[in-house]
Amino acid sequence: MKRFDFFISAPFAVALALFIYLDTDGLVPLFAAAALIHEFGHFAAMKILGARVRGFSLGLTGAAITYNDSGIGTFSEVVIALAGPVFGGIAALAAALLGFPEFAGVSLALTLINLLPSGQLDGGRVIAIVFRSELLTFALNCAAGFVLLLFGIYVFGASGGNFTCLLLGAWLLADSFVNNR
After folding, report:
1. pLDDT above 70 for 181
2. Which of 9, 82, 84, 121 has its CA 20 to 30 A from that of 112?
3. In this structure, are residues 123 and 116 in contact, taking their beta carbons and an 8 Å threshold?
4. Domain range holding 148?
5. 85, 115, 145 — which closes off a domain?
6. 41 and 111 part of one domain
7. Are residues 18 and 92 in the same domain?
8. Residue 91 has pLDDT above 90, yes or no
9. Which of 97, 104, 105, 111 is nearest to 35 (CA)?
10. What is the rounded CA–CA span in Å between residue 51 and residue 102?
């Protein structure tokens, strides 16, 4: 019998509860649906390309599907990494065309964030797969985090208190140092 691992970290559960509590606009269900479509894109690519899916986890760095990548090449790994954003982009476009602008916006935001060349995000995975350089990956992780942090400071001031980009930049910078020691 094939083993499939499923794991939800305690910090993820606490963060999710906090987001649900603070969500006054009903965006958490939309974000969850967009994330599910995104992860299904990765899963579908893995199955099509013959990778053996081993598990699924939810942690502070987001969702992750683990798979056995032996036997698949660099091109297949890149396709798997980009499949989530492709599915998310298609979902955003379809939602916009069908008159669901809130879901389109959430799905598009999730897609664009995941394409950043940083850390555990899909864009960072592509950089790491293609260039196989820990130094380049670390430098891009730090640069993306720093740029978002600066942009977040600007948005925070200009919007009168929206700290989303500020938190995202701080998270990406912290992730750079934690995962690239």
Report:
1. no
2. 9
3. yes
4. 134-175
5. 115
6. yes
7. yes
8. yes
9. 111
10. 34
Residues 52 and 84 in one domain: yes
- Determine whether 101 is exposed, middle or buried from the number of CB atoms within 10 Å of its CB (0-12, 13-18, 19+): exposed
Q: Residue 116's beta-bridge partner residues?
A: none
pLDDT at residue 180 above 70? no
**pLDDT tens for each residue of 37-73:** 999 999 999 999 999 899 999 887 788 898 987 788 9
The burial of 138, by beta-carbon neighbours within 10 Å (0-12 exposed, 13-18 middle, 19 or more buried), is given as: middle
**Residue 154: pLDDT over 60:** yes
- What is the structure's pLDDT at 146? 87
Closest CA to 107 of 90, 122, 124: 90
For helices 101-114 and 27-48, angle between their N-to-C axes, nearest 10 degrees: 50
Query: Per the structure block, which two tokens stand in for 58?
Result: 């939810």
Is the pLDDT at 29 greater than 60? The verdict is: yes
Is residue 111 domain-shared with residue 43, that is, in the same domain? Answer: yes
